[in-house]
Amino acid sequence: MKIRKIPMRTCVVTKEKLPKGELIRIVRTPSGEVIIDETGKANGRGAYLKKDKEVFLKAKKNKTLNKMLEVEVPDKVFEDLDNLLD
Known about the structure:
This protein is an alpha+beta fold. It has one domain (about 10-85): 2-Layer Sandwich (Hypothetical Cytosolic Protein, Chain: A). The protein is about 30% helix and about 25% strand. It has helices at about 55-60, 65-70, 75-85; strands at about 10, 15-20, 25-30, 35, 45-50. Strands 4-3-5 form a 3-stranded antiparallel β-sheet. A two-stranded antiparallel sheet has the order 1-2. The longest helix has 11 residues, at about 75-85. The chain is globular and about 45 Å long. The N and C termini lie far apart (about 35 Å).
């Protein structure tokens, strides 16, 4: 049986390399909208965050996602991230 390679991605806040399944992808679509990509395959520029409330708060405070996605990230995205973990 062939062993599948697990894709690794880097959290933009903690700079940790983790398996793709342990991270949440935030995407700026070609139309400029910012969404949470639950499939991991949405079209657009993406940034990964570790599934941790502290990481979400740090990303919001430091405006890390704004820098990575090169667009202003609405507060609704951070509210949705908090709800995702509950």
